[in-house]
Protein 1
Amino acid sequence: MALATLAVSIPAASFVTGDGTPVERAAATRPEPTETDRRHMLRETSLWAGRTAVNARRHSDRAPVELGTRFTTTRNGWATGVRFYKAAGDPGRHTGSLWSAGGRRLANVAFTAESASGWQEARFARPVRLKAGLVYTVSYHSDRGVYLGTAGFTSARSGPLATVSRGAGVFGYGASAFPRRWNPRGYNYWVDVVFRWRDGGSYPEPSPPPAPSPGRPTATSPGRPTATPTSGVTTSPSTGPSRPPTLTPGPSRPPTGTGTPSPGTTRTGGQTPPPSTLGPTRPVPGGCGGHHPTPECTGAPKSTRLAQRALNEEGAAYRVRTPGAVLDGVHIRGDLLIHADGVIVKNSLIDGHVINADGPRTFRFTIMDSTVGPESGCQTLPGVGQDKYTAVGLHVRGHSDGFRASGDDVVIRDSYVKLCSNPGDHSDGIQTYRTGRGLVFDHNTVDQRDVKHATAPIFLVDDQIVDAVVTNNLVMGGTYSIQLKNARGKLVMRGNSLVDKSWIYGPVEADCKAIDWAGNSLVTIDRSYRITSVVGPLKCA
């Protein structure tokens, strides 16, 4: 049955499509239809009620910006339009878009007859079919860079619709393009989708807006912490999309939670290509000769003949859904989505990032002796995340963030991370966002020197951290190179080496009284990351 595109106002309780099919708003209060009615009825909803008043901070970045919401649905259906809450004083032109997880634009529409502020809505020329369980992004573009942003957003649900559990609010500066950055402070930019599906169950009503969180706005953009000493989280950039050198509030990273390569990136799909090889042999995995990890003794063994896996997720990613699956000696020319427990990845090359979040769910996995990231270029998303994973012997390259810890049981050892950045990033070697218990970061090398948009090689400032052990690492670069604040429980910082004078503002920013701090040193190194001298003790400050 074809669906006609309608110009109807969101608050409508029900209406009829051009082909005579009745459509009911999920939030409408009316008697339950009979089972016979249900077979012919479509329902429609959005994440937020149509007349919801939004009390959120207004931001003006003086640059064009794309703002969006990442969402999923438990039912197959159709996206019929885009909504956004317009900030006062935003007279510019606005367009709305719908995107696949891989950054492909599925539909777009121009907003017309806008009001001065409040909810605006535009319908696509044709409804776009959505598949249950996949992640999509709905966005709008403001050519004036004026928008509303609310920090501390957790989730919204309505009917079968729900935002993703982490990094739901996303943004990107410039011309209209796939917004893939997000602010670790969890910003919501009040962008909504109009979703239609066939009836067959009861669902929650649209989410009311959360009360605005207190806090003083900063003068910067949607997504980063300030580069000046602050107690803010890099993992929680500020209130709006943003760019250096000020790291303030705004949408600022990426997402999270789902892999989304930037639009225009060509991914390989279809037939499985022939195996490739990485070249000459490297030292034995994990065998760094008693020294800190380097590119030569981490990552996929260079003697391994890699078998390329065809991408199975919209040409952008390879998704694993089999519990206990083992990927050994594979080359994935995109992102690796781990959506099953007990997955093991080893001796492999992943050109994108490795993520274990599927909507609100995450899955336990192990990755070892593998290379993560592109050989050239820089991806804003973390190389490996979110929680319940063990990473050993990795070489992470071409990522603005190395590792993300967003839950319990994250163990990272014997790995080498070479960071990069894009404008608006807040690069971190290891970053925490809504972290839980049992973080272990041991015997790793993190090189953040020469990264322009940086926060810290070790950035652990989440107030949900409980028990964290950071030992025997070699780090360099960043604003404050080692940051450990706001955490609880057993906090250990021992045996770490920091390259002397490699920081911008200072070596350490930490809650010293709460930390077991001992045996940390300032050092010099050579080009092979060998320590050439100990300058002196690294004191906590």
Note: The chain has a mean pLDDT of 79.
Protein 2
Amino acid sequence: SLERSDTWAEANFPKISSQRNLSKYTAFPPGYFGQPKKGHLIFDACFESGNLGRVDHITEFEYDLFIRPDTCNPRFRVWFNFTVENVKESQPHFRVNVCDVFIRKRYPKIHINLIVSSLLE
């Protein structure tokens, strides 16, 4: 049932402690203290349609992302929009795991298309 699915989603997706978007958040490695270095990725969603609520640094090349709920339906997270800055040249590839995007069972063949734009400094 719909209620059971909603309850499952709420129980299995981590709560976002703040209802605000991340604003120029630097994802430091665990135990690192100091100024950001090139390669410490900076995530931002403080703009219209941005909805990134939390980032967890897993490795130098992997990050777990948690999306804020949709405004009109807080039980669902079905899209995401954020920016990433401060990538170093030797780090051309990194993995982001969008951990809490929720797509209903009635859309089993839905495809997610990523739009990536890169600006070289």
Note: The first helix runs from residue 2 to 12.
